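Schema walk-through. Below, the input block comes first and the output block second. Nothing else is stored per chain. Lengths vary across the set, and this one has 93 residues.
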Amino acid sequence: MGALHQTNQHHFKTMPQGDVPQGRRGKHNKIVSTILDELDQLKDGAALKVPISELADTMENVRSALNRATRKQKRNVATATDENFLYVWNTKE
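--- output ---
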């Protein structure tokens, strides 16, 4: 019998449940949090200009993570891109 089928041994390590991280803090958390913080301080009619080269992942994945975060917070935000930048700004609706 293989190790996975033995009843007295576990394949995975265990840990106290209280030490398990709660919530989803993916790899985009830092950049998305930074963008949201700066959007809070952004003047009407202005947009953030985020260099794509500074993103830890693809622009599409960061944009998706930002979209999930703004929907969760019920924020109205728009985005646009060109070859070098991700633009983000607050919208009324």
